[in-house]
Amino acid sequence: MKKKVLVLGAGLVGKVMAEDLATSFEVTAADANEEALAYLKQKNIHTLKLDVTDTTRLQAAAKQADVVLGAVPGFLGYNTVAQIIESGKNMVDISFFPEDPFQLNQVAKNKGVTVVTDCGVAPGMGNIILGHHNATMNVTKYECLVGGLPAVRQWPYEYKAVFSPIDVIEEYIRPARYVQNGAVVVREALSDPELIFFDKVGTLEAWNSDGLRSLIQTMPHIPDMIEKTLRYPGCIEYLRVLRETGLFSHEPIEVKGVKIKPVDLLAKLLFPKWSLQPGEEEFTIMRILIEGEHNNQKQKITYTLLDRTREGVLSMARTTGYTATAALHLVADEDFKQPGINPPEFLGKSESNYTFILNYLAERAVVYTKHVQIAG
Questions:
Q1: pTM tops 0.85, yes or no
Q2: What is the pLDDT of residue 162?
Q3: Domain over 125-308 is classified CATH 3.30.360.10
C-alpha cells in the first residue's frame, strides 16, 4: 500500500511537487484556492479545499497522512509547521518563513517528529551540498550565488515571480546576514552590488540577501560564508527607489480615511506584472563555491546549475520542488529520521542521502555540475 502524503499549497511549486510525488505516493493536495486545485484534479490527484489557518481542520487533514509537505507562503509557514508538529506527523517544508525554526526544535523532539525546513534550491540544495563537504573536509569558505529569471528581459522589471510576491519582496527588505572572518555581519538587503559573468547567460547583478539562514547557527566554525541573489543588471536601482519611497513598508498608512499597508498595495500592483504569461519561460542560475582543506590538500570546489523551463514546467518549480520531494522520499522511507528541526545541511551529512538527492534531481534533468581544483 502506498504511503499517504499531504501537500499544503497548490501554487506553481506546490502543484509540481504534488504531481511528482503522485508517482510513488497517494497524494492529497490542499489549498484555500479552488482554482489552484483545478489542475491537480485533472491529474486525478486528491484535492482538499483547506485554509491552513483553520488549525482544527489542518491537524485533522495531517493526521490522515503519513508525511506532510509544506509549500505555503512564508508568512503562514511557521504556524503551519507548528500545527503539523502538534499533529505528530513528519514534514518537509519550503515556506522559508522569517521566524527562527529552531524555536520549534524541542517540541518536535518531544513529539518524535522529524521536520526538514528550508528544503528548496537556495536555501536548500546549497545547504545540502555544504553539509556534505563539511562532513569530509575543513571548510573555510562558502559562497552561493543564485537567481531565477525570465528568459526574455522585458522593461521595466525584467523579472517574474513563480511564488508569493510578498515572499519575493521580503528578499528586498529583510536585513542580509553573512559571515566574514568569523564574525556575523548584518547589512541592508540589496547592498554591495557586483556584476558577475556567467556562461550561456551573460552578466548578472549580485547583491546581499539573507539566504544563509540556519547555516549561521549550524556552521559557526566556517569563517567566511555569504549568499547573494542574482538579477539582470539595473534591478537594484529601481528596487531601492521603491524601498526609499516607502512601498516596502508593513506599517499601515491612511489614504482617504482607509488604512493600508504599502507593501500590500505594492504586491497587488506588481503581481500581475510579475506573473509569467502562457508560453513564457524562465531559468534558474546557481553557482556554489566551497573552499577548504582535505587530506592536507587545499581544494576549491564549484557546483554550477543552469536549468530552464522544461516541457512546460517552470525551472524554479523544478529546482525547488524536486529538492523537497527528494527529501520527502528520505523522510517517508525513514532513510532520514532525526526528531527535531533539521535544516537541509543535516541531510547532506550522509553520503547516501547526498547522492540520492543529486541522482533524484538528475533523473528529472536538474543537473549540478561539479568541478574540483586542487592546490598544494
A1: yes
A2: 74
A3: yes
